[in-house]
Amino acid sequence: MKRTIGIFLCLLLFSGCAGRREDSKTITLWHWMTDRDAVLQELAKKYEEQTGIKVKINLYSPPSSYSQKIIASAQARLLPDIYGILDKKKVFASFIKNGFVADLTAEFKKNNSAWEKSLFDKALDVNRFKKGNVYGVKPGIYGVPLDVTNIQMLYNKKLLKKAGITKPPKTFNEFLDDIDALKRVGIAGFVSGWGELWMADCFASNYAFNIMGEDKVMATYRGEVPYTDPDWIKVFKVFDILRKRGAFIEGIVTKVNKYAEQDFALERAAFAFNGSWCVNVYHDMNPNLEYGTMLPPPINPNRPMSIWGGAGSSFVVNNDSPRKEEAIKFLKWLTAKEQQAYLATKTRNLPSNRYALSSIPPILADFARTMDYTTHPSIWKYNEDAMVTKKFDECIQMIIMGSITPEKAAEEVQKVKEQELRRAIRRKKR
Amino acid sequence: MKTFYYKIIKGISVTFIHLFLLSASLTCLFPLFWMVRSSLMTMDTIFIDKSLIPHTISFSNYIKAWVDGNFALYLWNSVFYTVTVVFAIVIISSLAAFAFSRLKFPGKDFFFYMFVAAMMIPLPGSFVPLYVLMTKLHLVNTRIGYVLCMTNVGLSMSILLLKTFFDKMTPDLEDAARIDGCGKLGIWWNVGLPLAMPAIAVIVIFNSLNVWNEFILANLLLNDSRLMPLQKALMQFQGVHSINYPLLMAGLTIAVIPIILIYLAMQKYIIKGLTSGAVVG
Amino acid sequence: MVGGNEVIKKKIFNRDIITNYFFIIPAVVIFSIFYIYPFFYTFKLSLNEWNGIDLHQQFVGLDNFIELMRDKDWWASMWHAWYITMIALTFQNLFAFILAFACDRDLKMKNFYRVVFFIPPILSEVVVGLIWTWILYAGKQGGEYIGLLNYTLSKIGFSHLAHNWLSDPKTALTCIAIVHSWKGFGWGFIMFLAGLQTIDRQLYEAARVDGANMWGILKNVTLPMMIPVIAVVVILTILGSMQAFVLIMSMMGNELAGATSVPVTQILNSMMATKRFGYACAQGITFGVILIFISVIFKKVSDRFKEV
User: Fold this and answer.
1) How far apart are CA A249 and CA A58, in angstroms?
2) Which residues of C touch B96 (CB under 8 A)?
3) What are the extents of the domains in chain A?
4) Taking a C-beta distance cutoff of 8 angstroms, is the pair B226, B143 a contact?
5) What is the pLDDT of residue C16?
C-alpha cells in the first residue's frame, strides 16, 4: 500500500511541472490554421533572425475549440498578444468595445497611409468600422488581414466536355440546361459544403443580391421588408428549382465542406461552390484536376452577380498587451510583399498584399481577378439577427431535401424575424 | 437415441451461436482493419485503390506521423495524463464509494445524490468560469490543473459503479476483517477493493479511454504544445480544409494501440476478480 | 462512574464519524472546485442574457426559461435524443446481454470475442464517424455506388433498397442511433460480463440439481442476481445516450436542418453560434432537471423490481 502511495506522490510531483513561462519580450500568437502552421513557424524563425525578437506561435484546432479558448481567455484577461476572432462583425464589435482589441488606425495611416495602401481594400474593409456604424464602435481599422479569399463557382473542364458543354454557363437558364446535359451522361451536377450552414447562406445571399439588390436586402434586415416578399420567395425558389432538376449531388445538405471538396477533386461532380482556399486542397487530392472559376450564373440579367470575398484570415492585437508595439511590427512584417509572396506560394492562398500578386500561380490569379466584385457581411451596413439567419439556413436545407415549400419557408423565417424584432424592442425598453 | 438427438441440437445451436458472434465480430473488426489498411496507402492511391488489401504498401505515414507530428512527446504526455488521472480516480472514488456504501455519517445520502445528479446536468458555458477559476488558482497551462479537471470528469460515474459493487459486501466479511485487526482503511484496502476488482477494471478502462481521447479540455486549459496530449497531434492532421487521410489513419492507429493494450491487461481482472476475492455467502 | 462512560462514548462517536468524512473529502473537494462552482455560475447565468464577451450581463429573470418552453426546435431535439436512447436501451443492451451471456459459459474463442467486442468503444468518435459516413455514403462515381452499404446492396441484387441514408431526414436519425448503439454495446457487454462473473457458480449448480434447464436458470438465478448491474447499465445508457453529440457532429457536419439535432448540439449552438450564453445555461438546466426526473422515476421502478 505504501508503495502505491509513493508512486502516486511521485506522479503528482511531476505533474507540478508547469509550462515554461515566456520571457517578457516574446510575442505570443494563437491561431487555428492547421495547414499554415508549418509556414508560420518558418516565418517566425526568419523574423527572429532578422530582428532578434522571438515569436511563439501556437496552433489550436479545430476552429470551434479555438473560439472557445479565445472567449475563455478574454474573460480571464489572458489573451495572447496576437490572435484572431472567428466570428461575425457583431462579435468583433463586442470584443472591441470591451477593450480586447487594439485600434490600429494610427499605424495604418503612418507614412501617408503606406501600410493601408499596400493591402487590398476589400480585405481591410472586413476589419474596418466605418463612420456611423450600427455597432457603436469608434471608426477605424482594428485587424490585419493575412490573406484574401473569395467564394465562387468552379467547373470541371473534363466533365463538361464529356457532356458536350464547351463553355461555362453565363446565365441561370444556361446553367440549368448544362445540368440536364450532365444528367444525360450520368454526371452529378453540383456540389458544395452545405452541411455547413454558412456556405448555404452565402449562396443564397449571392442570389438575393442579384435578384433584389443590396438595398432591399438591407431593408429586410432592418425589418422593413418581410421575408414573405415575392423576391425572397424567388431566392428560396432557386434551391427548389435546382432540386427539381436534380442538380444537387446526393447528400449535399450533410456535407461538410471537406467532403464537398473531396467530391469535386475526385471528379464526382461537375460544378462546385467553394472558396479560393480550395486551390490548395484540390492540388493535394488530385494534382491533375483541370478546372476553372466562374461566377454563380445570375438570374437577373440587369444586376451584377455578387460574391463574398474579403479577408480570409485576420489577426487582431490584444489591447492589454505590454508588447503592443512589437506585435504590430510583426504583423506589418508578415503582410509585407516578401512574406506574402512566400505564404501565397507555400499555402496557395491569395495574398492580402496587392503587390505580391505577380508571384502567384495562374488558377489563383483567376480567383484574384474578381476581388473587386466581392462583398461580405462584415462590410454591410446591417446584418441579420443570428436566430433569423439560423432559421433561414435551416429552411434552405429543408427545401433542398424537399420537405418544405419555398412559400412555407418564407413564412417560417418571417415568424422568427418578428419574434426577434419584438425581443429587440423589449430589450430597448429595459 | 436421445443423447444423439440432443447432441445434434447442441451442435446446431453452438454453430448458430458462433455464426452470430462471428458476424458481430466482423462488424467490430472492420473499422480497425480499414484504419490500418488506409494508413498503409498514400494520398495518391487512397481514393483510387478500392481493394481490401492495398496494392502498394508503404509505411511512410507512420514515420511521418511519428517525426512530423512529434508523436513521441504527445504520446508521453497522454500516457502521463491517463495514468495519473486513472490512478487518482480509482483511489478517490473507491474511498468515497466505500464510505457511501459501508460507513455511516450524517449527510451521506445528500453527498451521494449530489455526485449522481452531476452526471445528469451538463454544464454549458462552464468552460468560462472554469477557465477564470483555474487562472486565479494558477492552474492554467499546468499538468496538475489538467489532471485535476479530468479527475473530476470521471468521478461521478466511478463512484456510482463502485458503490454498486461495494453494496454486495456482506457484514460478515467486514466483521471478519475487523477481527483481524483492520481499521476502516484496512477493510477498504483488504476486502473492499479486491471484491470490486471487476468494477475497478471497468473504471480503469472507461476513464483511460476518456482521458486518452480527450482534446476539448486539453485545448482549453493548456497553452504550451509541450504539455499537449496525443489528440492534439491528430487534430493537426485534420486541416481546416483538407484531411490527409492516410496520415490521419496512421496517427489513429498508433493512438489506438496503447488503449487496446490496457484493455487486454484489464479484461483478465474482470474474470480474476472473483477468484482472488473473498467467497460470497 | 456512569457519567465518565457517557462522556467517553460521546467522544468516540464523534471521532468515528469525523474519520468517516475523510473518505469522501478528496472527492468532495475536487468536485466542489470543478463542478459545484461552475454549477452555481451556470445557474446564475441562466437568469441573464450574455454574449460571452461583454463585461456586464443583462438580468432577464425567467425569460430564458419561458422562451425555452415555447422553443419547438429544443423539444424536437429532446425527442431525437430520446429516440436514440430508446434504440440504445433495447437494441444495444439486449444485444450486449445476449453476447455477455453467450460468452459467460464455456465457449471456444471466448477470449477472442471478449477483445473484439470492445473495439468499437475504443475507437475515437472521429474514426467511427469517418468510417460510418463512408459506409453510408450515397454518392456514385462512374455509375457505381461509393458507399459500402449501397454498393453491397446493389451487388447482391437489392439495389432498390439503396438510399440516401444520411441525408434523408426519415432515415438519418435511425442510422445515427444504430451507429451509436454499435459503438456503445461493448460497454454493456463488459459490464454485464463483469456482473455475470460475480454470480456464485454454486447457485448454478444448485439450480441444475433442482432440475432447471437453461431458461429456468436464466429466469430464477441469473436475472435476479443481475438486477443491480442491469439497473446501473440502464441508467448509464440513458444518461449517456441523451447527452450524446460528438458522434453526431462528426457524421452530420453541423446538423441536418434540425432533423438530427440533440440537446447538447442545441446548447453548443446557443453558446457559440448565436452567442446567447444565458439561454444556453437555461437549456442546460432544463435538460438536467428532465434527466433527474427520468432517473428518479427509474430508481423507483427498479426499487420495486428489487423487492420482487
Assistant:
1) 38
2) 23-24, 26-28
3) 24-149+312-378, 150-308+382-425
4) no
5) 75
Q: Domain tally for chain C?
A: 1
C-alpha span between A220 and A228 (Å, rounded):
10
In a domain, B281, yes or no: no
Taking residue A400's Cβ as centre, other Cβ atoms within 10 Å add up to: 20
Please check whether residue B122 touches C, CB under 8 A.
yes
Condensed to tens digits (0 to 9), the pLDDT of residues A54-113 reads: 999 999 888 888 998 999 999 888 899 999 998 888 899 999 999 999 999 999 998 888
Give per-residue pLDDT as tens, C60-75.
888 889 989 988 889 9
* Tens-digit pLDDT profile for residues B155-197: 988 898 888 778 877 777 778 777 777 777 778 887 777 777 8
CATH topology of domain A150-308+382-425: D-Maltodextrin-Binding Protein; domain 2 (3.40.190)
Q: How far is C65 from chain A (nearest CA, A)?
A: 15
Residue carrying C-alpha cell 499596400: A118
Cα(C88)–Cα(C121) distance, rounded to whole angstroms?
Answer: 14
Q: Is residue B267 part of a domain?
A: no
What are chain C's partners, defined as 3 or more CB pairs within 8 angstroms? A, B
Task: For residue B210, tell me if it sits in a domain.
Answer: yes
The answer to whether the A24-149+312-378 and A150-308+382-425 domains have the same CATH topology is: yes
CB contact under 8 A, A397 and C172: no
Asked whether the beta carbons of residue A284 and residue B43 sit closer than 8 angstroms, the reply is: yes
The predicted pLDDT at position B142 comes to 87
Question: What are chain A's partners, defined as 3 or more CB pairs within 8 angstroms?
Answer: B, C
Which of C123, C195, C271 lies nearest to residue B125, judging by beta carbons? C271
How far is Cα B154 from Cα B85, in angstroms, rounded to an integer?
A: 9
Contacts of A398 in chain C (CB under 8 A): 257
Half-sphere exposure for B203 (CA within 13 Å, toward CB) = 31
User: And the C-alpha cell for A198?
Assistant: 454558412
Give A33 to chain B, closest Cα distance, Å.
Answer: 6
Q: Are the beta carbons of A72 and B131 separated by less than 8 Å? A: yes
Residue in chain A nearest C266 by alpha carbon: A390
C-alpha span between A309 and A119 (Å, rounded): 14
Question: Does A162 contact chain C (CB < 8 Å)?
Answer: no
Instruction: Per-residue pLDDT tens, chain A, 430 aa: give them.
Output: 566 666 666 666 665 555 555 667 899 999 998 888 889 999 999 999 999 999 999 998 888 889 989 999 998 888 999 999 988 888 999 999 999 999 999 999 988 888 998 888 888 888 999 888 888 899 999 999 998 888 999 999 999 999 888 889 999 999 999 999 998 888 888 999 888 888 999 999 999 999 999 999 999 999 999 999 999 999 999 999 999 998 998 888 888 888 888 889 988 899 999 998 888 888 888 888 899 999 999 999 898 888 998 878 999 999 999 999 999 999 999 999 889 888 888 888 888 888 887 777 778 878 877 877 788 888 888 888 888 998 999 899 999 988 899 999 999 999 999 999 988 888 777 6
Which chains neighbour B (Cβ–Cβ under 8 Å, 3 or more pairs)? A, C
Picking from B88, B141, B239, the nearest residue to A19 by CB comes out as B141
Q: ∠ CA C245-B35-C95 to the nearest 5 degrees?
A: 55
Distance between terminal CA atoms of chain B?
41
Which residue in B122, B188, B260 is closest to C122 by CB distance? B260
Topology of the domain covering A24-149+312-378:
D-Maltodextrin-Binding Protein; domain 2 (3.40.190)
Band of pLDDT at residue C271, cut at 50, 70 and 90: confident
B201: contact with C, CB 8 A cutoff: yes
B142: Cβ contacts below 8 Å, ≥ 6 apart: A15, A16, A17, A18, A19, B227
State how many domains chain B has: 1
Q: Which CATH number goes with the domain that contains B193?
A: 1.10.3720.10
Query: Touching check for A182 and chain C: CB below 8 Å?
Result: no
